[in-house]
Amino acid sequence: MLSSLLRTPFATMHKRLVDLLPETRDRLAKIRRGHGNKVLGPITVEQIIGGMRGIKGLLTQTSRLDAFKGIKFRGLSLPECQIRLPSVRREPIPEAMFYLLITGEVPSNDEAEDLKKDIAERAQTFPNYVEKIVNSLSKDLHPMSQLSIGVLALQNESEFAQAIRRGEKRGNLWQSALEDSLNLISRIPKLAAMIYVNKYRDGKLGEIRENADLSENFCRMMGYHDEKFWELMRLYLTIHCDHEGGNVSAHTTHLVGSALSDPYLSYSAGLNGLAGPLHGLANQECLRFILGMKEAIGESPSEIDIEKYLKDTLAKGFVIPGYGHAVLRVTDPRFVCQMEFAQRYMPNDVLCKLVASLYKVAPRVLKDLGKVSNPYPNVDAHSGALLTHFGMTEYDFYTVLFGVSRAIGVCASFVWSRALALPIIRPASVTMENLEEFVRKT
Ligand code: CMX
């Protein structure tokens, strides 16, 4: 049943979702009915203590992370997305990625265009009261805290919360979840841009175009008019959008959403997790690290100099930001994409060269520590150097860019979680006494 929420501009994606729902629900019901008591894997004591690493305990439709191959969005690797999804130049437009994550299908140019127009149109209507709240925040407040507050303030607009209040059937909640998701994805760039111009510029937002994609409009609002920067932002928004369900931001959003909190409440919580230095905040730390290294050992240091710098950093008790991963055991393909972008558009950039030099040395140094599970770079190791090339030097803003992107993935998952009527999440926990008793008996 198509609800009154159906709007013409995104009718194709909405209709496709309506078509996909019965068969997807049916597939899940069959698995549950026929195989619900099958054991997928054991849980070790180490996993309980060690952050649940590797425990398969979440259903996530939108993407899957392989430790050796990296992320696949609905089965497509990053290079496949770059080839197959509608783009302006080479990098997919964010709207096409959302379409893919929602439907599992590559949109045609027309389908992506419909969604692009819808998102641009929604971006024009930004609640005045939220603008006032954001403009009243202290400039000293970290941009991620501002973003989280802004997303929370948008909650007043939630169709999902209204649907809950009027007693909408659980099976229909995906419709208002989709409506909120589209509004959130459309408006979060403006929110982020407001934070940017308030904190670092004169407070004036650039104008957006009806026929531009989300990336171009986001950059325009922040005052960036270089088409290559728009292309970098396309790359950025695509590669950061989703990383299966277990990472802190996606997991938190999913967890909070399972209580039938609406997408704004859920994603504001997810953003607070993204703001942690071991997760999204690492991107600002990476640029700080590269700049510090440049200051200490120069623009083109030898490998010996870099090795010494890294060892000194580790000896002081710091991590090497941008290196390591809880799941990946190879160089992150998202790092590779960014390195390729740097080689294509800015082969002589000093900071990008430093990132490349660090990549030659850091894995060896981290391996030598003997405890690091993955000594290779992750997504955060490169982005700051690319952004700095185009003049975006304000590194404490970088995690906000990650937040704009991650909304795309977690919202797609949110819609599916409600479409599949997944229950409230409530895993069991054990006490230390329980563990001691268990180990005594085994
Ligand atoms: N530099 C120094 N030490 C590191 C390290 C790094 N880059 N990566 C891991 N280690 C250390 C850990 O601190 C841990 O040490 P202790 O046993 O003394 O506590 C040890 O190696 C084992 O950790 P691990 O199993 O390799 O890594 P985890 O799965 O526990 O954590 C991560 C993964 C990403 C938090 C970790 O590698 C790290 O802190 N990296 C630097 C921060 C970073 O880049 N974060 C961004 C990740 C991507 C994202 O989520 O956005």
User: What's the arrangement of strands in the largest beta sheet?
Assistant: 1-2
Determine and state the CATH class of the largest domain: Mainly Alpha
Q: Give the helix proportion (percent range).
A: 55-70%
Sequence of secondary-structure elements? HHEEHHHHHHHHHHHHHHHHHH
The chain-level structural class is mainly alpha
GO cellular component, one term: mitochondrial matrix
Organism: Stentor coeruleus
Keywords: Transferase
GO molecular function, one term: acyltransferase activity, acyl groups converted into alkyl on transfer
Offer a few descriptive terms.
single chain; 442 residues; mainly alpha; Citrate Synthase, domain 1; Cytochrome p450-Terp, domain 2; two-stranded antiparallel sheet; 20 helices; 2 strands; globular; binds carboxymethyldethia coenzyme *A
Q: How would you characterize the overall build of this protein?
A:
With 442 residues, the chain is mostly helical. It has 2 domains: 62-277 and 396-420, Citrate Synthase, domain 1 (Orthogonal Bundle), CATH 1.10.580; 279-394, Orthogonal Bundle (Cytochrome p450-Terp, domain 2). It is built from 20 helices and 2 strands. The chain has helices at residues 11-35, 45-49, 78-84, 94-103, 109-124, 128-135, 143-153, 159-165, 173-200, 214-222, 227-239, 248-257, 263-274, 282-297, 303-315, 333-345, 350-369, 380-389, 398-419, 432-441, and strands at residues 63-66, 70-73. Strands 1-2 form a two-stranded antiparallel ribbon. A hairpin with a 3-residue loop joins strand 1 (63-66) and strand 2. The chain starts with 10 loop residues before the first helix and ends with a helix. Carboxymethyldethia coenzyme *A binds next to loops. Carboxymethyldethia coenzyme *A is lined by residues 247, 278-280, 282, 314, 319-326, 366, 371-374, 378, 380. Keywords: Transferase.
